[in-house]
Amino acid sequence: xxxxxxxxxxxxxxxxxxxxxxxxxxxxxxxxxxxxxxxxxxxxxxxxxxxxxxxxxxxxxxxxxxx
Length: 67
Known about the structure:
Blueprint: H1 3-11, H2 16-39, H3 52-58
InterPro entries: AhpD-like
């Protein structure tokens, strides 16, 4: 995270606790994605029923498993 990133979050009105929430959430997502990639996990077929925008955000670069 750069000073510019912090300034952008501050510009959106985030305080220290909210900035920490953003940083920790991004770190958790990165860790989770790395583990899923390492073990070759695929999103469940149920992901196909999700709204397209949600599905796309959750499955970036991954094929959805067939039923």
